Amino acid sequence: MNRETEKQARTDAGAGPVVVDLRDRVPQLDDKALASLHANALRLKDTGSTRQRASAADLIPVIETELAARQAVKRAAVAARAPKAGAKKAKAQAARVAEA
């Protein structure tokens, strides 16, 4: 926001800069943005200002929980496809054996 916009926002009734809690936005992020946020939070936890360290420490468990949940969904999807792939492979092998 530039200064003119900020000034206008302050003069408007009920308007102004809004602080957004990232914990609420984590589930809406795509995988790439979530990975980037996680990397930044880990970096800030170690090298940031006192305020940044505290914010990162609060945010990291939320991010890691979301990452774990997404990983579990991906593993379940792979596991659901695995028997089908195995059955196709077995059927193709049986056909080759039958031809020989």
- Shape type: elongated
Mind summarizing the main beta sheet? none
**Count of folded domains:** 1
Provide a count of the helices: 4
Number of strands: 0
- Radius of gyration over alpha carbons? 24 Å
Mean pLDDT figure: 82
Helix and strand sequence: HHHH
Which segments are poorly predicted (pLDDT under 50) over 5 or more consecutive residues?
none
What brief labels describe this structure?
100 residues, mainly alpha, elongated, 4 helices, 80% helix
Could you describe the 3D structure shown?
With 100 residues, the protein is an all-alpha fold. Helix content is 80%, strand content 0%. The chain is built from four helices and no strands. The chain is elongated and about 80 Å long.
Topology of this structure?
Elements: H1 3-11, H2 22-25, H3 31-47, H4 50-99
Helix pairs in contact: 3-4
Please provide a brief summary of the model.
The chain has 100 residues and is mainly alpha-helical. The protein is built from four helices and no strands.
